[in-house]
Design brief:
single chain; alpha+beta; globular
């Protein structure tokens, strides 16, 4: 397994997706407790984590929230858990847990399936600015 920073939650995201990259920037903005770090699914670290977790990303097409030695979550559950850590009014998003995961993931999958068409994609993964570099694993 790879060596990850202690007491951090790793978000694996689609590095070429404009929606995903914008979402990462939003997470950074609202991560006042500085608990999240990031890596693209396409990166070397991302591939190692995916292999470690034995996830077939061709079948899930999702973000992954990985808490080493705790758990990992995908799709809507990952998104809701991320928003919960923002605190404040973001805690209201936890109301969506009243819906079965299967129903939440239908909405998630619909957006994921259309994300390139609606938001576009990049030729390569986002390069973080020097100020944000410490939040990204390669």
């Amino acid at each position: 397994m790879i060596d990850l920073p202690k007491n951090k939650k790793l978000i694996l995201f689609d590095g070429i997706c404009n929606l995903c990259n914008d979402s990462v920037l939003k997470v950074i903005k609202y991560d006042r407790k500085n608990i999240f770090i990031f890596t693209a699914l396409q990166s070397e670290t991302g591939k190692k984590v995916i292999d470690h977790l034995k996830i077939d990303i061709s079948k899930i097409d999702s973000i992954i929230l990985f808490e080493p030695e705790v758990s990992f979550d995908i799709k809507s559950t990952a998104a809701l858990k991320i928003m919960n850590d923002f605190g404040g009014f973001w805690k209201a998003t936890q109301l969506f847990f009243i819906f079965p995961e299967r129903i939440r993931n239908l909405v998630y999958d619909f957006i994921a399936k259309n994300r390139y068409k609606w938001f576009g994609k990049r030729e390569s993964c986002m390069l973080p600015t020097p100020e944000l570099k410490e939040k990204f694993l390669e």
